[in-house]
Design a protein that fits this description.
CATH architecture of the largest domain: Alpha-Beta Barrel
Distance between the termini: 63 Å
GO molecular function, one term: 5'-methylthioadenosine deaminase activity
Family: Belongs to the metallo-dependent hydrolases superfamily. ATZ/TRZ family. Belongs to the metallo-dependent hydrolases superfamily. MTA/SAH deaminase family.
Shape: globular
Pfam families: Amidohydro_1
CATH superfamily of the largest domain: Metal-dependent hydrolases
Bound molecules: ligand LTUXU72L, zinc ion
Number of domains: 2
CATH topology of the largest domain: TIM Barrel
Enzyme class: hydrolase
CATH class of the largest domain: Alpha Beta
Catalytic activity: S-methyl-5'-thioadenosine + H2O + H(+) = S-methyl-5'-thioinosine + NH4(+); S-adenosyl-L-homocysteine + H2O + H(+) = S-inosyl-L-homocysteine + NH4(+)
Strand content: 15-25%
Length: about 450
């Protein structure tokens, strides 16, 4: 008998890799934060002597969900400006509110609220793009979440930095200080082609290659963005980014609702990744990302919620369902984006896009024990013929019961273990009062 930290057993384990596999009555053996083995529960009990054995009787265990694009502090702006198209929403509502309120305190409390919501929804890793990324990283790490911090660049001054040069310098400083952190990693996050000039973009292309970190950017979010680029630069944004050396395996293009067939081929040929944010795209009426065509071309497509001011939640189970349904509607093919593919987009594809494919995104020996348990015994998911069908087409985030990151429980029986809820509620109420007063 081998002594280990933990066994978690459940009627279903969906490891995501290999694709399509569902293991029945299996257990995950976990030691020092990593998955040692997946094996039948009976065998696990004969082979291992665990410090703790979590027996889940009606649950599916899946890899922790990976939110490949969000702006976590924007939880504090949830519901502030609805039913508007992107540029009106940004220029006349969101940017003015951010100009008034964004600072370290806003980012701290907004990230804390986001962390609580993400953990309760089964997310274990998120890729963020916002001001004061160090504060987001500190809050995320304290909550026990895995976070990829976007080192933002935008040609406008903010409370965080004055110009593109300062954004880059501050980002590099954070990168150097936190390099090697167990939970935090980095990507460059130039905001969008229409807000960052050629010089900083060219510099980021070089730095991303040198430092081997991804570049995460809103690209081709709307038809207006593409038309404006053609008028201003004589070319579509993707071509401009390609000429600046940014399109390749380092790039995560977020949204990508406007894509011609040649651009889809180009993304596939260069190994660039796409982050699909279906609910934000629907709410801002930005357009439809051609997910099925991208997948067929071999592009790695991940899933993101975007921020809660355009979604308005951080619910990746819900996002999977929207993505799966929308892909069928857009392609006219009911077989487009089946449930296993949607789950893979919300887990392993996100991890791979973020350069974390070796450590998270699937339940495999050697990987970090980043795990989400979903109770499929609720009435809403009965009867049960196929657990993956229910995860994508029927379950809600309220059925997420337990979440672990690197083997550490962040949610146990729906209770947050790392976040003080009454304190969080007080902080959010305070922001609500301040923001509502100014509105
Ligand atoms: C430079 S920090 C990030 C910046 O992005 C803004 N934002 C949030 N959602 C979107 C979106 O869908 N498209 C473009 N910009 C977005 C956010 O408000 C911050 O200012
Ligand atoms: Zn965004």
């Amino acid at each position: 008998m081998q002594t280990i930290d933990k066994l978690i057993s459940a009627p279903w384990i969906i490891p995501v890799e290999p694709q399509g596999r569902v293991l029945e009555d299996h257990a995950l053996a976990i030691h020092e934060g990593r998955i040692l083995e997946l094996l039948p529960t009976e065998e696990a009990q004969a082979r291992y002597r665990p410090e703790t054995h979590r027996r889940l009787e009606r649950h599916a265990l899946i890899p922790g969900l990976v939110n490949a694009h969000t702006h976590s502090p924007m939880t504090l702006l949830r519901g502030l400006a609805d039913d508007l198209p992107l540029m009106d929403w940004l220029q006349n509502h969101i940017w003015p509110a951010e100009g008034r309120f964004v600072g370290e305190g806003f980012v701290h409390d907004g990230t804390l609220l986001a962390a609580a919501e993400m953990i309760r929804g089964g997310t274990t890793c998120f890729n963020d793009m916002y001001f004061f990324p160090e504060t987001t990283g500190q809050v995320a790490a304290r909550a026990g979440l895995r976070a990829v911090l976007g080192l933002i660049v935008i040609d406008f001054p903010s409370a965080w930095a004055g110009d593109a040069e300062e954004y880059i310098t501050k980002g590099l400083d954070i990168h150097d200080r936190y390099k090697g952190d167990a939970l935090l990693s980095f990507c460059f996050a130039p905001h969008a082609p229409y807000t960052v000039g050629d010089d900083p973009l060219g510099r980021l292309a070089t730095l991303a290659q040198e430092l081997e970190i991804p570049v995460h950017m809103h690209v081709h979010e709307t038809a207006h963005e593409v038309e404006e680029s053609v008028a201003r630069f004589g070319m579509r944004p993707l071509e401009r980014l390609a000429r600046l050396g940014l399109v390749g395996p380092n790039l995560l293009g977020v949204h990508m609702t406007q894509l011609e067939a040649s651009e889809i081929r180009y993304l596939a040929d260069t190994g660039a990744h796409v982050v699909h944010c279906p609910e934000s795209n629907l709410k801002l009426a930005s357009g439809f990302c051609p997910v099925q065509a991208l997948v067929e071309a071999g592009v790695n497509v991940a899933l993101g919620t975007d921020g809660t001011a355009s979604n308005n939640d951080l619910d990746l189970l819900g996002e999977m369902r929207t993505a799966a349904l929308l892909a069928k509607g857009v392609s006219g093919d009911a077989a487009a984006l089946p449930a296993h593919t949607a789950l893979r987009m919300a887990t392993l594809n996100g991890a791979r896009a973020l350069g974390l494919g070796e450590s998270t995104g699937s339940l495999e020996p050697g990987k970090s024990a980043d795990i989400t348990a979903v109770d499929l015994g609720e009435l809403e998911t009965l009867p049960l013929y196929d657990p993956v069908s229910h995860l994508v087409y029927a379950a809600s985030r309220h059925q997420v019961s337990d979440v672990w990151v690197a083997g550490r429980p962040l949610l146990r029986d729906r209770q947050l273990t790392t976040i003080d809820l009454p304190d969080l509620r007080r902080r959010v109420a305070d922001w609500q009062r301040r923001i509502a007063e100014a509105d």
